[in-house]
Here is the input.
Amino acid sequence: MGFEIEFRDRLICLAECRIDLSTWQDWWAVHSAEVKKIISPGDFSRLNCAHSLYGPNTFMSKCQDGAERYLTKMEIAFQHSDIYAKGADEEYRLYHERLAQKHRAAQAEKQKQDNQRQRSLEELLNHKVSINDLRQLGIRTLPTGAKDSEIMKLLIEWTEFLANSEYTEAFEMFQSYNHEVEWTPELLESAVYGYGCPGYSKEEAEKQFGSSDYRVTSLWNNSNRDNILRKIAINYYKLTEEQAKLRCLTGMDYENIIGDIHYEGVPLNGEESDLTARFFIKRVGKETISLCFYDLHVM
Here is the structure.
């Protein structure tokens, strides 16, 4: 009988908003099993409330509702208070205000990125790969902090090498990530004519896929040039050791990886294709970065 009186008094305090969150939770943690033995499952579930993402007053308001329902059913008198309810209303308002602020910030960031991408695109539309560019050999580097448009110029140069069937020159522009396959100029060529499936001879690709006539063509003569350039996604991040393990990158100085690139729609036979070329962005010096070719495949 003594516990039932204690339980009743606790519910009255809860109904009248005379108990704080920690005091109620501490009491409930100790006595909930005992409470479960003396009230119905429905009454228990209304008191055994889940934590609220809005805040403590919202949680207490739900518990208060359960207490009032039980007290009313048992014809036990109490004086209702709206302290928890008012606090819950404020928590709800603040929660959705924070959500709206995050949404506005995300929209502003997206607009900023879209504007940056548009500026990069406008800069690229006037860019032409010169003969001198295509005569360069070896790893291409850029200063740390280079604009996206400078990175995209390297991708354009890489595309033009492929369009000229200069696979060795394209291959030697960047490092290669050799986890699943050991990339070579010949394997890169097979990934092109095999539409993202490297390792087949032309005869094998013809037999397996029905065609081996795919070849990279120039971006500048492609009617979808602007759309292809616009879709190139350049992302920056810092990998943790766990993330590097999940992506099988622990053997390639992952600490120097600072981002990646998805070059969708690599032009084949004069059309925007379903091929995507993927690259990592890597630090290769104290103040320089370069790209690391990952693969060429159908997304």
User: Anything to note?
Assistant: The mean pLDDT is 90. The radius of gyration is 32 Å. The chain is about 50% helix and 15% strand. Strands lie at 142-143, 175-176, 233-236, 257-264, 267-268, 271-272, 275-283, 288-298.
